[in-house]
Write a structure and sequence with these properties.
Elements lengths: L17 H9 L6 H11 L6 H13 L1 E4 L7 H12 L13 E4 L4 H7 L6 E6 L9 H13 L4 E5 L2 H5 L3 H15 L3 E5 L8 H13 L4 E3 L11 H18 L4 E3 L7 H14 L12 E3 L2 H14 L12
Parallel strand pairs: 1-2, 1-8, 2-3, 3-4, 4-5, 5-6, 6-7
Helix pairs in contact: 2-10, 3-11, 3-12, 4-5, 6-8, 9-10, 10-11
Amino acid sequence: MPTTAPPAQALADVTASDSTLRRFLHGLPGVDPVGLEARAASLGTRSIKTTAKAYAIDLAISMVDLTTLEGADTPGKVRALGAKAVLPDPTDRTAPTTAAVCVYPDMVAVAKEAVAGSGVKVASVATAFPAGRAPLSVKLADVREAVAAGADEIDMVIDRGAFLAGRYLKVYDEILAVKEACGAARLKVIFETGELSTYDNIRRASWLGMLAGADFIKTSTGKVAVNATPANTLLMLEAVRDFRAQTGIQVGVKPAGGIRTAKDAVKFLVLVNETAGEDWLDNHWFRFGASSLLNDLLMQRQKLATGRYSGPDYVTVD
């Protein structure tokens, strides 16, 4: 579904004031919901042969942000998760490591120790996750504490109330401040697409996040009823494609929540390849926010290798 991105020179002053930013965001091309969903559904029907499927499964494993974000998280659970991220399948050391483990800020140091020397990143949610309802000073303290503990990546939530009220510059300034607090850590900006109501709002949020310096734009927290879908991810992939065409800056995409099977993951990889292109088929630019997805990927990987499914205790239950 082609889109028309704004000319590059139009981006220079769009954040100068609330009115210019609002004019820019509301001047983006409107989204045809029927066309978007039809395109996403069509791409989801693509068949993948055995060799390509094996490659896609390994690629998907390498893109997983293995996540635990529960009030009952313990150091032991986080250490076990870190061990699984480093060695997803103890019976097959050819399985790739995951991209990262994602935890709350108070568990960053534990996760960092668990994945030390492996190349697996530690991501931390911050900014009063998942609601984002806190003063900016509290949100920035949250970020700085996570970074000080060793977080390589920060997953922040935007102020959806401000966004939906049209206070775009407030959201923009908050992302800028969080980006600065991240230092060398990469910043993923979560929109909570299930609360944004319309596809037009998702497109506006995508451009707002990228204008403010997001390294990744992310669909969801996984804590609401509607999380990542093929359609909203397709829309965000179009946004990063168009943004790079206009600015030369590449931004990653992370669908999160509700992606549970290898079949689902492969469909999302097809979306990436057909929409943004091969440059995004790398875990530096595309991630899956998931907890149960990794188990199904490992089961399907084992099935391709041996021709049979293993018993229920083949993978750990996180």
